[in-house]
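Annotated sample (chain length 407).
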Amino acid sequence: MSGFPNARALASEGGVSVRERLRDYLAEGDVHAALDRADASALVLDASADGLAVAGLAAAERALCDAGAFALVSGARLVVAAARPALAAALDAAPAEARPVLAEVLRAFDAARMRPRTLRLREIELDLAAGAHVMGILNVTPDSFFDRGRYRGVDAARARAAEMVALGASIVDIGGQSYAHWNPQIAAEEERDRVVPVVEALVRDGLGVALSIDTFKSSVAEAALAAGAHLINDCSGLSDERLAGIVARYDAGLVVMHLKGRLNVRDAAYSYDDALAEIAGFLRERLERALAAGVAADALAVDPGLEFGKEPQTDLEILERFGDLRSLGYPILFAASRKSFIGRVFDRPAKELLVPSLATAAAGIAAGAGIVRVHDVEETAQLARMLAAIRNRGRVTIAPRMPQTPA
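Output written by the structure step:
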């Protein structure tokens, strides 16, 4: 990653305790010392090996300890356990070389607790505070691993889009290129010819939801945005240098996904020393690139890229530690629907993966995902609504009795 530091608050959802998370980074004796801090939250800051941040780690460690926090530097990493008052006190008293590090730690602490409330996609604003939104997958390719070309063509795509909206989708994600490793990449012209007529038709239909385009090619994005799309879902992490500027020109939304390696290529050699550290650092750098190109901060979202340049053990690690991504401070898109890592866990084909796909979606929403990209809209919309009812229980409308039961 680039020279600025990147801090993450260690999430502890899903039955994984703060103690267990700290064991990934500290010896057992240091874990005890960290947990002795009352109301402590655990954070990890990763700095580039040659960046300015490394020089400030030792000074930040001293300032944190002086403020009553636990802090330990190991190489280019700072591990912290502290309550917010100690973090703020350390920043106030710190020397100049420590301030960028401590400011980043405090930023991550606050971002992990203040979930984004909205995501703006041109004229559409998604209310994320009310619960996770469902993004329905609309593949208009002949070689989709799950749909098998069922929605190829404008008429079939229109019918499926209307159906997904009726079932609860608030975003329709249109894809004209399959990224399965057994399928080849197609030319931008062919991809554009597949998706733009669909966008034009759905705009005429007036569905009242956001239209997303699943592409990494700037020319496809530009044509789709000109036709009325609201969001570009880029699964390459801005590999096309023109794409962010085009999104900015249309004041549209952008999802930045982590990718290791290349699209349409599967390589079992992809490995990670610390998957969440690498993913968060990558996304942080690409978000800065998008902002520099003029994309509005309230129009950006991130995606850790489950299965893209990852093997199942890494995908499971991401699911376990998904809440760490909240420290980026942007809405998170969760995309695991019927993916092959789930099929490899169960040794079943995609058509038999509804229940485990819903389980992963539940884990993602509970950990902070604001958008869930799925094939099974109706079931996931009910799941998201139930989780939102639990979270917002004081504001839920309750029927006097369950239908078809005695009064």
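Annotation: The mean pLDDT is 92.
Annotation: The first strand starts at residue 6 and ends at 9.
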